[in-house]
Amino acid sequence: MLNHVKKLEMKNKIFELYKPRSLQEFLEFHKNNPDEKFVYVVQQPAPNINILSASDFGYLVICLPNTGPESQAIYSTAPFVRKMKKNLQDFRKEDYLLAVGDPVIIGISTTAVSDVTNGQFNVLKWDKREYRYYPLEVDMYQKG
Q1: What is the C-alpha separation between 55 and 95, in angstroms, rounded?
Q2: In angstroms, rounded to a whole number, what is the distance separating the alpha carbons of residues 28 and 13?
């Protein structure tokens, strides 16, 4: 008897929304591939953090860099609210959020995602013991 288990497939394209050319590529790819899933990474991780295994869940979409003035919410959150609302406006319930980076920007991103999905969305949780990501469903309003 054949076992028909769908194997997770690593996606090899990474989109960086803070780079104009990569943003354009993402918008075209997203439009032309409506059935593909995406993993929205809040910020580019530090060089010593490897998130490539998250691409088992969809194409990686990095929303913000991890260096420079766009990397930390220090004096005002308003620019980050605008950026993350724009970066996450196409997030769908079947996509995933990967919380990496500045905790304030992660909070803003979670709120932005919740707004566009009516509180129902997926996140990826890193398991330190198993060395892998686990998908978790979030239902902010517990309405079913």
Answers
A1: 11
A2: 13
Reference 59, options 16, 101, 102, 6; nearest CA is 16
Q: How far apart are CA 26 and CA 43, in angstroms?
A: 16
CA distance linking residue 66 with residue 25, whole number of Å: 21
The reply to whether the predicted model has a pTM over 0.90 is no
| 8 Å CB contact between 53 and 44 | no
Predicted local distance difference test score (pLDDT) of residue 96: 98
List domains and CATH numbers for the chain: 14-139 (3.40.50)
Spatial distance between the Cα atoms of 130 and 48, rounded to a whole number of angstroms? 18
d(CA 114, CA 119): 4
Q: Which two tokens stand for residue 50?
A: 């490897």
Per-residue pLDDT tens over the stretch 77-88: 888 999 999 999
